[in-house]
């Protein structure tokens, strides 16, 4: 069976699968949840199983920074008796302050961002979450035998059928990272991030890929960060990239800079900058054929034939790819992909 691209950026594969004897990739779903998110988690797992995983039966690894309560465990077991899933508590060392952080300074940052009404600006837990996804999710010993992950958030939905194995597509086509939505970051959450990145690169320039995607995140002189990043609530990626010395050293340098706590550096900009600098740009893939919703944004395939073939339920007119706050234009330009004829329509259309 061949897994091929049918165009410059679209996928095409329609396998006939017997889930019982199917040779899977070493891959899993990763979900971070809370006990109180049980109902949206159930809805999301059912959605992903129906639109994709019923054909492939990849396992679910469900993480919580607190122990799962008995109701969560019991209800999930009744809802998914035939689905492989694992419930795991995140080690405290993955979800706490590193010892070099000045807690008073971090507290003042949260207070100031709260005064400025920055989303999650006041949240301590949100920063622990960002640090976890930026530098620790790939370190779980339970994932040591996996090469690929698909990050899923409770409450999100696939809006189209996916008629091919995403993980095989990634592996067979030499991809290391895939996304569906790109977006601009809130400027005052990452005010010093790019300066820290430049400091790191100045002493580690050998880590840059010669054919990277730097133009997606900055100008050719690398004078500034344009705020573009891959929205990480949906990401499909190589665990081995994140485990690599190149990525780990980059993360640990940024971690020591303290911006996760002294500002509100998110995992998405950290991931995106690393991916754009250290990977060959051909290793990054935009899944334009996948319909997806995470409040408040929708990604919907713009190609009518793809939309129809994949039985999409989304409205193509509200696709986020080329709207103003999106970074779709920057991505298409950096990858030298021809934009669809109707793309300018979306520059005026807003939700």
TrEMBL record:
Annotated organism of origin: Saccharomycodes ludwigii
GO cellular-component term (any): membrane
GO biological process, one term: protein O-linked glycosylation
GO terms for MF: alpha-1,2-mannosyltransferase activity
Keyword Transcription: no
Protein known as: Related to Alpha-1,2 mannosyltransferase KTR1
Predominant subcellular localization, coarse grouping: membrane
Family: Belongs to the glycosyltransferase 15 family.
Active site residues of this protein: 235
Annotated keywords: Glycosyltransferase, Signal-anchor, Transferase, Transmembrane
A Pfam short name: Glyco_transf_15
Subcellular location: Membrane
Membrane-related topology note: Single-pass type II membrane protein
């Amino acid at each position: 069976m061949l897994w091929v691209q049918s165009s410059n950026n679209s996928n095409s594969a329609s396998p006939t699968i017997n889930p019982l004897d199917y040779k899977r990739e070493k891959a899993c779903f990763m979900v971070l949840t809370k006990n109180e998110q049980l109902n949206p988690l159930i809805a999301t797992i059912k959605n992903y199983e129906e639109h994709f995983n019923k054909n492939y039966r990849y396992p679910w690894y469900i993480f919580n920074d607190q122990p799962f309560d008995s109701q969560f465990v019991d209800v999930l077991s009744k809802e998914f008796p035939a689905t492989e899933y694992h419930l795991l508590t995140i080690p405290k060392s993955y979800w706490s302050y590193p010892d070099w952080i000045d807690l008073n300074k971090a507290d003042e940052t949260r207070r100031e961002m709260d005064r400025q009404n920055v989303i999650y600006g006041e949240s301590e837990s949100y920063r622990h979450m960002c640090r976890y996804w930026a530098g620790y999710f790939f370190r779980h010993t339970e994932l040591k035998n996996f090469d690929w992950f698909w990050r899923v958030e409770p409450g999100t939905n696939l809006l189209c059928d996916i008629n091919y194995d995403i993980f095989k597509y990634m592996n067979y086509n030499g991809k290391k990272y895939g996304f569906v939505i790109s977006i601009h970051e809130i400027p005052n959450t990452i005010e010093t991030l790019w300066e820290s990145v430049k400091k790191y690169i100045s002493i580690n320039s050998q880590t840059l890929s010669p054919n990277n995607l730097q133009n997606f995140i900055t100008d050719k002189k690398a004078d500034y960060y344009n705020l573009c990043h891959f929205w990480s609530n949906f990401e499909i990626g190589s665990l081995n990239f994140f485990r690599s010395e190149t990525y780990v050293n980059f993360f640990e340098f940024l971690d020591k800079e303290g911006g996760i706590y002294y500002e509100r550096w998110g995992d998405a900009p950290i991931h995106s900058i690393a991916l754009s600098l250290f990977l060959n740009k051909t290793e990054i893939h935009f899944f334009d054929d996948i319909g997806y919703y995470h409040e408040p944004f929708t990604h919907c395939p713009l190609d009518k034939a793809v939309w129809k073939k994949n039985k999409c339920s989304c409205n193509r007119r509200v696709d986020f790819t080329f709207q103003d706050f999106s970074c779709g234009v920057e991505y298409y330009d950096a990858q030298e992909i021809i934009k669809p004829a109707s793309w300018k329509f979306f520059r005026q259309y807003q939700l």
